[in-house]
């Protein structure tokens, strides 16, 4: 009995003596580890003057990176290996610092200079629209992230107006004349692109219309095949010795061909309702229709017709609106002329007139 009891006990003792205990508390490797290798820093600078820079660090043995942007931003950004970060810079040079941390807690610090340079704006265009003495200006260009400085050219030591992309500014000139508008497109840095545009500022177009005022725009429009111009008077004499006149030619196009001009404000019919116009025609019997319309809405209109009685001579035609226009409620502002309305022209002198001195009288 004693022998049988001894053998299992000896076996158990033998098996127990063959086991070892794992030790997970040994951190000696932390004392022998090394810091991350000196890292490379890659900059990808967007070439659109936005100042956007992508920063990508790379270092063997790093488990995290702290990136200091080198500008007024004081707090770093932490990223993991394989990641990057972006930052917006102004034009300039910046010491970008990256601190790489390894698994042992040891760190490696690297600083690299970042140079951000903005390109000069390109394809600068100026849009200028005048309404009498008011001029509205806008500008567009590529890479003009700093906006636009606008100079209107009517003052010494002028202080420019700064506008953003897509914005506009309106300026009022003290008097009519020609002016050089200058626009500087700003890159957001040192680079600037400059363009100029000549503009003409006119005084108001009012009655009587004489074609003799250089500071007034006599810009007639045409439709349906009418051709209108302002020319030196080829036949001074008789009732019209003025230097400049208007000329209308009706070509072989539409039977309703005509021209038009818009006065600076609606015509005042309070005291006067008759138009008188000096006309030079190459044949008697040419029907001249004078039509008045509201600007932008020709459903408000009135017209009267007169007929030439002379050939190769100046005469005065009268268009009496006394029976049609009672007040100013229709706000009639546009003046139109039709030659032989309803008849096709041929571009010859038979369908041509000279006209001058459009007067509203009683």
From TrEMBL:
Residues 148-201 form the PKD domain. This is PKD domain-containing protein. SUPFAM superfamilies: PKD domain (SSF49299). Signal peptide: none annotated. Gene3D superfamilies: Galactose-binding domain-like, Immunoglobulins. Transmembrane segments: none annotated. InterPro entries: Ig-like_fold, PKD/Chitinase_dom, PKD_dom, PKD_dom_sf. PROSITE patterns: PKD, PROKAR_LIPOPROTEIN.
């Amino acid at each position: 009995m004693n022998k049988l009891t001894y053998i299992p006990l000896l076996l158990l003792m033998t098996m127990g003596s063959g086991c070892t205990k794992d030790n997970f508390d040994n951190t000696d490797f932390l004392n022998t580890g090394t810091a991350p290798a000196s890292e490379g820093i890659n900059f990808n600078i967007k070439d659109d003057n936005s100042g956007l820079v992508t920063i990508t660090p790379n270092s063997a043995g790093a488990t995290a990176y702290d990136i200091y942007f080198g500008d007024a931003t004081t707090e770093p950004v932490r990223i993991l290996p394989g990641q990057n970060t972006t930052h917006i810079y102004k034009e300039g040079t910046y010491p970008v610092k990256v601190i790489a941390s390894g698994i042992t807690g040891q760190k490696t610090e690297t600083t690299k200079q970042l140079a951000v340079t903005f390109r000069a704006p390109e394809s600068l265009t100026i849009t200028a629209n005048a309404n009498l003495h008011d001029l509205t200006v806008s500008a567009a260009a590529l890479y003009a992230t700093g906006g636009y400085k606008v100079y209107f050219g009517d003052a010494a030591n002028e202080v420019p107006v700064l506008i953003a992309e897509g914005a506009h500014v309106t300026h009022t000139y003290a008097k009519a004349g020609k002016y050089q508008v200058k626009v500087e497109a700003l890159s957001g840095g040192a680079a600037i692109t400059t363009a100029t545009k000549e503009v003409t500022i006119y005084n108001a177009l009012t009655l009587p219309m004489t074609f003799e005022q250089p500071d007034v725009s006599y810009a007639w429009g045409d439709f349906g095949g009418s051709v209108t111009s302002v020319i030196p008077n080829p036949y001074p004499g008789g009732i019209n010795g003025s230097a400049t006149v208007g000329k209308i030619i009706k070509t072989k196009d539409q039977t309703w061909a005509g021209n038009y001009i818009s006065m600076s404000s609606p015509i005042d019919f309070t005291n006067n309702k008759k138009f008188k116009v000096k006309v030079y025609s190459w044949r008697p019997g040419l029907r001249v229709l004078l039509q008045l319309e509201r600007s932008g809405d020709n459903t408000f209109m009135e017209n009267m017709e007169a007929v030439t009685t002379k050939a190769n001579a100046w005469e005065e035609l009268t268009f009496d609106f006394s029976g049609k226009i009672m007040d100013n409620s229709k706000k009639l502002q546009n003046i139109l002329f039709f030659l032989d309305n309803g008849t096709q022209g041929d571009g010859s002198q038979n369908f041509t007139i000279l006209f001058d001195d459009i007067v509203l009288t009683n």
